[in-house]
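Subject: for your reference before the review

Hello V.,

The reviewers asked for a structural picture of the protein, and I figured it would be easier to keep everything in one thread rather than splitting it across files. Below is the amino acid sequence we used in the manuscript, unchanged from the supplementary table.
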Amino acid sequence: MGISIWQLLILLAVVILIFGTKKLKNVGGDLGSAIKGFKSAVKDGDADADDVPQKVEQAEEGSANTESVKKEDKV
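And here is what came back from the structure prediction:
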């Protein structure tokens, strides 16, 4: 009881009549470039996420060194 192939073809024909093939081609190209941009942003985000633990470890090492220096100054 879903959408049959004939209903999809009629819907496609109506959309082509309303928008025209040129506009649909432009929309398809815009959609493709948006997906490509999204994928590259996700890749960049994954690369940035890998760098964060290294920075945190370096910061923890730095704070441990400053704490030991502060304790030595107090004594």
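For the response letter, the relevant points are probably these. Helices lie at 5-19, 21-74. Residues 22-74 form one domain.

Happy to draft the paragraph if you're swamped.

O.
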